[in-house]
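User: Here's a protein and a ligand (R1T). What would the complex look like?
Assistant: Let me lay out the input and then the predicted complex.
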Amino acid sequence: MYTIGDYLLDRLSELGITEIFGVPGDYNLQFLDKIMANKNLKWVGNANELNAAYMADGYARTRKAAALVTTFGVGELSAMNGIAGSFAENVPVVEIIGSPQSGVQDTRKLVHHTLGDGEFSHFEKMHQAVTAATAHLTKENAPAEIDRVLNTLLETRKPVYLNLPIDVAESPASKPSGELSGLTELTSEDQNLLQEIESAFLEAKQPVVMAGHELASFGLEKSIQKLIEKTQLPVTTLSLGKGVIDETMLSFIGTYSGALSEPSVQNFVDQADLLLLLGVKLSDSVTGTFSQGFSEQNVIALNVDGVSVYGKVTQNHHFEPLIKALADLEVTPYQGDYPSKGSTSTSFIGTDDDATLTQKSYWQAMDAFFQPGDTLIAEQGTSFFGIAPLFLKTGTKFIGQPLWGSIGFTFPAALGSQIANPDSRHILAIGDGSLQLTAQELGVALREKLTPIIFVLNNDGYTVERQIHGAEQSYNDIPMWHYKQLPDCFGGNSNAFQAYQVRTEKELLAAMKEARSDPSRLYWIEVMLEKMDAPEYLQKLGKLFTKQNS
Ligand code: R1T
Ligand code: MG
């Protein structure tokens, strides 16, 4: 019998999803049977629901949609931090909650995973703040509600929530008819706006395009690339949204971060007479704490949730078709200068064989190590600040989470992205403190035979926090783990992984060489660095924070 559960799974396949993440529970087991029986889908069970949500997020950033299944209450609340991160950064994740039988919910029975008050809507309500749409599925409303919610996911590229009582999943349904779809038509307001943008470009002497993370949420990288290639307009990104544009292009001027940018880039952007912000959010940690020097008088900003023209908010726009239409604008190719960007790549050969690694030499070595087509993932500690100013190579996918900034996110996210795109070598840079939050997922990485290269930066604690406040306070210390031994403990063997601990430039370069030449195993490289050493960019940010808070 074709059921509502099958209907939902077929719709997920239509979104390009081939793996589903999560943790079983007695309220979702029968639904999981449907996943096991579905030839287009594979179940990837996680160590816990938070990790499942992070992994789904990483998968969705690369595949453009992901799904996770948790059980009612205990499972979904653990996943909620991850879902909130997906919401904040526009990552399309479908969260499916297996909930008690409809009859049990209707009669308010005192069952497990409830707060003991007979109320079954608490958790659904909590999720309303962190999802673009929620639905409580019934035998009657299920197909229509599933389609409504999934269409909202396509329109907003934000997570959505489906509460699926076990008996509803088992109820009969007909196969889907018609296709899911986002907002693909230009509105008349969009047409007017496009004309306004066209004339603004005709008048502008020093225009700049800033490409943001929302473009990646919609898979619009190619559209924006086309616009820049055609017009040669100077283009930048924030570190939130890094990787959206090919950073080897002549017209890519470097990553902008307010007062922390290269001075030539900062001046160029701040003095632009027209700034076109595409899917950009100017959050504190990516603007050197709001130190951007341009004014909204010069800004046209197109976002998923609204458009602002020189500070005036305008309504009724459809982001996706609007961005696609930009490439067709009649804009005279840019003839002006670009700011100098200094050296855009490093070939690191090591200064002295036995030189101990520093943050500086480590990031130089990393820069030289990255190759076109890699997927780079940087955790919200010194790792993010190390990668942010680098120029990425062609075809690089970059994943970070600087807006939501939940530490531990990147480890499962890197694995999820690797599952979504096994052909790209995934390279994760993560701190010891962050890894301790989600390290259990190493078991899943080894079981699934994933082959990322993981750099675990061991600097004996929360260095990024030490830079901000409490350098010597013990709250910034963490237990010292035997990091190199973790893959062994989590079930790996020499066919599945290779582990190193490196202290010197020579050791790092040797481990990198080995890792690059062997795409068949997971590489686990523990990098020993000084407690207080930090990338220059972070040291400057730490000073800015201190100044603001004193
Ligand atoms: N808890 C969660 C879930 N997310 C956070 N961002 C924080 C706490 C605060 C926090 C940071 S950075 C950081 C913490 C605890 C320490 C990261 O340490 P690490 O991973 O060892 O990195 P490194 O030593 O290389 O800097 C805020 C600033 O985002
Ligand atoms: Mg650390």
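Summary: The chain has three domains: 4-169, 188-326, 359-545.
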